[in-house]
Amino acid sequence: MALSPRIESFKKNHKVKHFWKEGYVEPVYISIWRSRIFTRVWKETEGEPTSVRKAKCVAAYLREVPIFIRDDEIIVGFYAEDPLALPVCIEAVDQSIVRKMIAQGHVKEDEIEEWEEILDYWKDRGVQKLLTARLTDEELKIASADHAFMEVLPTQYTSRSQAEYDLPLGKGLLGIKKILEEKYANLIEEREASVGGTEYLEINDKLNDLKAMMITIDAVIDWANRYADLAEQKAKEEKNEQRKKELLAIAERCRHVPANPARNFAEAVQSQWFCFLVVQMIEHLSHGTSVRIDQIFWPWYEKDVLIDKTLSRQEALEIMEEHILKIDELGRPLPDAWRKSIQGNNFLGTYTIGGTKPDGTDACNDLTLLICEAMDELWLNHPDFKFRWHPDADPKCVEKVLDLQRRGLGQPSIKNERVTIESLQKHYGFTEEEARSWAVVGCISPAPTLNWGRARRDAWTVYPAKVLELTLFNGINPTTDEDIGIKTGDATEFKSFDELFEAYRKQFEWVMKLSARIKTIGEDCMNKLCKRPFLSTLFRRSIEACRDIMDAPDKGMPWVNIPGAVDSVDSLIALKKLVFEEKKYTMEEVLKALKADWEGYEEMRQDFINAPKYGNNDPYADEIARDTYNMYADEMKKVKDINNQAPQPSGLIITWMFSTADKVGALPNGRKKGDYLTDGGCSPHAGYDKNGPMAAILSASKLDFSKQKAQIFNQKLSPSCVEGEVGMKKFNDYVKSIMDLGLEMVQFNVVDAATLRDAQAHPEKYPNLVVRISGYNANFVELDKFVQDAVIERTEHIL
Amino acid sequence: MSKHGFITNFQDFAVHDGFGLRVLLFLKGCPLRCTWCQNPEAISTEYELMFHPKLCKGCGKCLEVCEVKAINNDGTEKVDRSKCNKCMKCTYVCPTGALARKGKWISSDEVVQTFIDYKPFFDNSDKGGITLSGGEPLFQPEFAIDILQKCREKGIHTAMETCGYANYSVVSEVVKHLDLLMYDIKHMDEIKHKKGTGVSNKKILENLANIRRDFPDLEIFIRIPLIPGFNDDEENITQTAKFLASIGIDKLDILPFNFLADAKYNALGIEWRHKRDERQDDEHLQKLAEKAKLYVPDVTIGGLR
Asked: In A389, A536, A714, B25, which residue has its Cα 20 to 30 A from B244's Cα atom?
């Protein structure tokens, strides 16, 4: 299969925002337009209701920001004035991120002065200010320690915007506006009848929010019309007849959508793209995509391609490919630790395909297959695709998914429909129908798209290995000697493993409570300032409530990432065996060795390396793993997010294993400071799983996944194991077994070490070498050497 | 009653040896001495001392315990095999596993219990199950029979890889518990066979014919490990295929030469005669497969079934 010349050309010229080492792959810069216009309008609207102010900012931006249409585009629209521009959410961002971009030259030189003025204005008004005013010194210190203990501040990361796209596609924005107008008219009547009191305050809030929502609808329609005007103007000047026709078609589409219901597949994709850009990149900065891409466009695809045959499958494929390339162009500025954490990626765009319909039958369709074909032709590491596997999934789709995996694309990764739906119903309390509508939000975490789509970032992160260090050193952080944790007892006095485990539990409990408090305040600060008038028009629950989505009823959907859990598990196993059972070493000796980063304790370190390890189907080790993962889940159950919902653990690490490598000290699993932590959520540490891939799966299957939000299991397979027709069948059987065993998610790295080493030496030969790094894909040659070496080492472990 | 057996190791996700998803158990000890053996550590019925230089940190602990002074720490050959009495003391003190003992006594019940853990994989794949390999499983028939019998009772598909060199009374007792037999024919020429393996092929060919006659429902794959210059000529493949056709066997796997065993020979301190041999090129493999197909309907290159 080969790309069409148009898509090939677009792929060549598309501008990715991927991080590379300390910087970016492309010469990106921060766009001043949003910050400039938002600052001006914010000043002009001082004193007005926050949602209305926000709506006026969005409207002014959409009317003023320069727009462009590129030669190879059929679907148009971009969030800023230039494909190389990064958006800045000035009211919500940690200012040091912007300052760093300026210092690194990711800025237009003649705009630096203006940036300074803007930063100065928001210094006392932004979310950052609201936060620092409300957090305690201790909370601020721990939360700002840059991926040492936790990652929880909203200012250092972006939000989520998981809209109900069937609304604009099916009703059109004008259709939505009509509903809003009716509600507004009814409220005006209520207002006239009102006698005041809190009841009237509610009516007043609703009127303001509805007004804000309608302002943004008009602005988005005007913005689309600007693209129509530009396309018409370009068509007039265009000499090439073919392109002229395309430009006129673009104009026609942009005149019609998103204002009106989409009439065909191309309009559906165009309409969704306009709305997506506004909610995701313009109104507020978000990441991820959280869309069931094979479902939201299906009615139009089915009609055009399969029933009316007004669109060829090839034309539909190109539209999908262009759409995917555009997602790959999205990006954001992030702080250093995050840049290291998502090397070779930026936006973490995630699409969900497959799964079941509301009635439980298979949702796979021809569009699912077409999207896999697009992935095949494009061969990109981003965006990321997840396949909702279930036993009745269309075998054609399953085979295509596995074929992409075995040929080394590493995606789509495979999620277990049964396990996910169970967790969404049991822990989070969604109905079966809601649970079946799930898509991945963020990297791997599932959330319903029906009724309860996300408008906030529900996740935060704590580092269990760091918490173990605090436990062993009684509250002292051994890498900085700061007294930061709580006193859980002198570890050298512990008489049994149970005492150690209890101390670890207490320390973890403390971290969870602390982080939940910070998270709650952070979300509240976001609520106060960052209203989402346009996103609110794309949610039934905010339309129904006549309130901004940030103030509309919500069900919490929180989770806490626990990168490096396996290192903690292996450390606990080794301590139990060597200190408490065999008594080969005292805890004092262990602490000395850890403090010395194992220098001078090499033999002892080898004993700790050779102690039993998780991932070998060894009941001794696997029991401790199960207890530890359960402990994380149980402690999380005690805390609450802003909606009073308790989080569940989520096992992903993206490349946190690298950004935290220097921050976590030596560990009793034999790890030295600076070594990367275990990748994946519940896959064994590379090299510690000695009994084969199936034994490693059996170990993981003993974890209680009903208590986990999501847990990635990464596995490396040798290409020779899955080649040919027979290999495909065995691969299929293998995945079925893994799903049967109840693992929540699995992804495979099918590539040999020799290829990787050659790519390290000759990056120019491998522009498209995609490797799997837990939770997302990366282009191998874009990774820095440290990360590359780690990937090679893991790969070499294949037998 | 549980039997005890001597093994080297288990290997899971074995997809190239039999149907479906399989777990292999390598039994230690073999009556043949094939010069190309892929599992040299499994040939002898004694413990073997393996040395993996990449893991050695040069701590010198092994020097202290070696009573026959068979260990050097000067960076050259670690173990002087002429002096080593295989007391294995060094493997007890080596902190990194660079010096390792190969060989483990295990009860058949423990083996069966381990296999049962993998049942979800077997049940989800077509005829997936366990495979006894080696070494030579027929070398420990009581142990093998006990494992196979108990696995079958648990509904697990059973397979065995064998060189077929044993008395037929033993062979038939083991084969009776099998769902699948993978049987090696190294060469059709008796003299060449003896040269390559140390034994005559007469018993092997006879046993095979008898098995086919006595167990007409048993699935049998014949495997030819292709050794450069020894048996990878068209004539030998043709003769083998003809023989198979004459006794009514219809499945043949020709296995390209695998040079990966070199690392194991190094670890055992044995010079490997086939060190410089190379995998047959695809064209040659295709030609051999074509020749075989003239007589045997179902031929694979590589054995992925």
From this structure: B25
